[in-house]
Design brief:
The protein is mainly alpha-helical and about 230 residues long. It has 11 helices and 4 strands, in the order H-H-H-E-E-H-H-E-E-H-H-H-H-H-H. It folds into 2 domains: about 70 residues, Arc Repressor Mutant, subunit A; about 140 residues, Four Helix Bundle (Hemerythrin (Met), subunit A) (Up-down Bundle). The strands form 2 sheets. A two-stranded antiparallel ribbon has the order 1-2. A two-stranded antiparallel ribbon has the order 3-4. Helix 7 runs antiparallel to helix 10 and helix 10 packs antiparallel against helix 11. The protein is elongated, with a radius of gyration of 21 Å.
């Protein structure tokens, strides 16, 4: 295997061992030499994998001491979302449920703020995206609907004018787009969802925070149910 592929494989194995609880926070990990022997690889990909784990604050590496598992629930940030969420056989259920719940709450609050803060151009773009989603839904073009769904909510968060929400959206952009097929259930039965995009866009345009938030909460709630169930 190419060196990068070996390193990725080692990284995934170690991530799985850590987030699954095989190794508890504070517990010593085997030495890098022992890990290389166990996994049947040389030292270079193990060192690279350990560097990535350290960057994600999943392990604590101190000179002259053993490598220990970090209390990653207390120390890791959004950059750890991918290794926590994905497993070789699919999603980690608890992490997926938490992700979708956080998504719904953030988007509903973004809709409330967008109705108060949006510019006229932003309101028009949201209505345009909602119309394009309806058209793609009628054409049963699920791939286009999924891309437009992301664009709609990205525009909504931009209109909300909250810097932290924007940074969160930036953090998940690549995670989502690189694994879009795994989230296809977000837009299943898109014809049922299309009116909710329109209601949300109209609520934002009418500067009605409650109406916009209700529509987005209902929309994101349906998407949450479908993704978690799938």
């Amino acid at each position: 295997m190419p060196p990068a592929s070996v390193s990725d494989r080692v990284f995934r194995v170690l991530c799985e061992d850590i987030v699954s609880g095989r190794y508890e926070p504070g517990e010593k990990l085997p030495t890098q030499r022992a890990l290389a022997a166990d996994l049947g690889v040389n030292m270079a990909p193990v060192r690279e994998a350990v560097k990535r784990l350290e960057q994600l604050r999943l392990v604590d590496v101190r000179h002259g001491d053993a490598m220990r598992v970090a209390d990653w629930r207390a120390t890791s940030g959004l950059e750890a979302a991918a290794p926590l969420l994905f497993r070789p056989d699919g999603f980690e259920p608890e992490a997926l449920a938490a992700l979708m719940e956080a998504r719904r709450v953030m988007l509903a609050e973004s809709a409330r703020l967008a109705a108060e803060r949006r510019s006229d151009d932003q309101a028009e773009r949201l209505e345009e995206l909602a119309a394009r989603i309806a058209a793609a839904s009628s054409a049963a073009d699920a791939v286009t609907v999924q891309a437009l769904d992301f664009a709609f909510f990205a525009e909504l968060i931009e209109a909300a004018g909250n810097l932290v929400f924007s940074l969160v959206m930036n953090s998940i952009r690549h995670l989502y787009l690189e694994n879009a097929e795994l989230f296809a259930a977000l837009v299943s039965d898109a014809g049922e969802l299309a009116p909710l995009y329109r209601r949300a866009a109209r609520g934002v345009k009418a500067q009605s925070p409650a109406a916009a938030a209700r529509a987005v909460n209902e929309l994101a709630g349906l998407q949450e149910e479908r993704v978690v169930a799938g």
